[in-house]
Amino acid sequence: MAYKNFILVCGGTACESSHSEEIYRNLIKEAEALGVSRDVQVVKTGCFGFCEKGPIVKVLPSESFYVEVKPEDAHEIIAEQVVKGREVTRLLYRKDKKSDTAKLEDIEFYQKQFRIVLRNCGVINPESIDEYIARDGYKALEKALFEMAPEEIIAEVKASGLRGRGGAGFPTGLKWEAARKSPGDVKYIVCNADEGDPGAYMDRSTIEGDPHSILEAMVIAGRAVGANFGYIYIRAEYPLAIERLKIAIAQAKEYGLLGKDILGSGFDFDIEIRLGAGAFVCGEETALLQSIEGKRGMPRPKPPFPAVKGLWGKPTVINNVETLANIPVVLTRGAQWFAAIGTEKSKGTKVFALTGKINNSGLIEVPMGTTLREIIFDIGGGIKGGRKFKGVQTGGPSGGIIVEKDLDTPISYESLTALGSMMGSGGMIVMSEDDCVVDVSKFYMAFCVDESCGKCAPCRIGTKQMYGLLDKISKGQGEEADLDKLEQIGRAMTKASLCMLGGSAANPTLSTLRHFRAEYLEHIRDKKCRAGKCKDLVVYEIDPAKCIGCGLCARRCPVPCITGEKKKPHVIDGSKCIKCGECYTACKFGAVIKR
Amino acid sequence: MAKMTLEQLRAFREGKRQELEKRNVEGKDIQVIVGMGTCGIAAGAKLTFDAIVAALEKHNMADKVVVRQTGCMGLCYVEPTVEVVMPGMPPVIYGKMTSDVAEELVVKHLVEHSLLDNHIFDRPAVDIVAH
């Protein structure tokens, strides 16, 4: 028994609500009626992430992609496609009314993702150099060693428009050029893999899925700037990524792609791994270099920039993991190809770790210029539990919140900065109406208090003071003047801090104050947290009309402070309640009320 | 392998590429590919991997199937993820493949040549290397 066709019916929440279940049943019925149920299997699948055009039906192996399918279309799909082997053209997806129907080659029309950095992630075995080589691996290195002069490599990277993916967005080609022009025999290439934003895991996944792309890019960078040695600075809490890097380095050395006289070109390059202890500030390039040198990781003023005076005083290029992963593709496909992707000033793609209150959390890569709405609603499948969207935090503790009205802004370094956030390394945390802006700001500020290195006063004192004010507000003890103080300290920190940790630490607070000042005032004036996140402002009660007296909440209560007879309404003793919310989540009848 | 020269690397790449493509197209091998980034492993990919190997033994499929690992496929909300590539069947990515579904995967997909309900997901983007 072997099926000739497979019909996949999207069983995602969105499609299900538009009758995909009925389509599924009709397809099975029609297949039986037309006597082809042995030729076709009808399968329910997960979400295809193209919910706006749902319900989606896909037929394999022909890859026919049908959109906005109705239950009555089932007959035609079976009769035409399965019986006669012809596609139902009127149901095929097309980009607009004029264009031809889209088939396999046009898949990018509906797939909003475009994978350059993640090209091998989830495709090759990351522990096999052979598979990397088979998929054009080390081809860019061949070009860099035998076909291009160092100046040509730099010109190509400059022409591609590639900018640093670590957050600030400095043009990579210019960085390389500055290091090349700096006088000195000894130069270094450093890969910054000290990813530390809460909720971000782009770099870890890239290294875990495709370690050789980083090694190849570092050798190319070495060739371009005239360096023969490189360090990968990675945090010790990424054991699998470190393990795979070690395997990759050993394999590359064995094949002669690292070490002395690479591929007989006469060029030497070697790479060593340096483990960081997980300090957030060591993601800042000057602090990172201090840490590699064995000193305490603290930033120093710039200039001199590392490209002039870096590791051990030598010219050094520091590139983030994601930046480097782009390099081999820039060389193999050419600067023109790369520069055609993205917006005018932000070229190529960006990887985001999409998390928070989102249905399809995941590691995604989209062309620059994609809107946040496309990311959150088309790729991410919308907000969990059908709740209302509140905002999205980009750039982690250094970024700001972006709200509904700005969701249609095409993503670029400039546009996110203009919205009071930043590109950052690519963490993207989606918040719903169940999140409280005071609570979120307090969380990020607590993170910055912990991670501030303490070298400069604005950051050391400013983060602590801002945290104190946010904590006060979250406990219902805030005053209206506190909001002005927050803004004042925030502005001072932004201007006066030594590095970007302090310089951006106020962003979450300042941006939420701008968009959600009313919620801060609610905490201060009404002692109320509408999301119910600020524990001290929440009161749990039981609605006697809804309580059936099942006793589940009383059994879950860790204090315990819930009493009541069986089958009679229970009562919460507010004086003992620790506001853990266990009763609220436990109750199946909505009888526990959060105020 | 000893250190390579440029010519050797080029010849080697061509050979490996054909090997990889042949496996995919003519499909002499059945490949079961488990996403094993930290995210996948945290969601139980190692247990899934072991359970698939055990199920293959049980159903006498072990000599026909290669079980491989790969990095993160990007579908964090449905980890662990498993891709199956085999002759006569379209390549499919399965999500939510916890170890208890492993045997169902082997029996239904590999032995009976049919797809599993409620576990199929889409590869998130076109492959720029193959294109």
TrEMBL record, chain A:
Presence of keyword Metal-binding: yes
Segments forming domain 4Fe-4S ferredoxin-type: 538-567, 568-595
Keywords attached to this entry: 4Fe-4S, Iron, Iron-sulfur, Metal-binding, Oxidoreductase
SUPFAM superfamilies (alphabetical): 4Fe-4S ferredoxins, Nqo1 FMN-binding domain-like, Nqo1 middle domain-like, Nqo1C-terminal domain-like, Thioredoxin-like
One Gene Ontology molecular-function label: NADH dehydrogenase (ubiquinone) activity
Entry's EC annotation: 1.12.1.3
Similarity remark: Belongs to the complex I 51 kDa subunit family.
Protein's recorded name: NADP-reducing hydrogenase subunit HndC
Native source organism of the sequence: uncultured spirochete
Automatic annotation (TrEMBL), chain B:
Source organism, top-level taxon: Bacteria
InterPro entries: Thioredoxin-like_sf
Descriptive protein name: NAD(P)-dependent iron-only hydrogenase iron-sulfur protein
Naturally occurring in which organism (per UniProt): uncultured spirochete
Lineage of the organism: Bacteria, Pseudomonadati, Spirochaetota, Spirochaetia, Spirochaetales
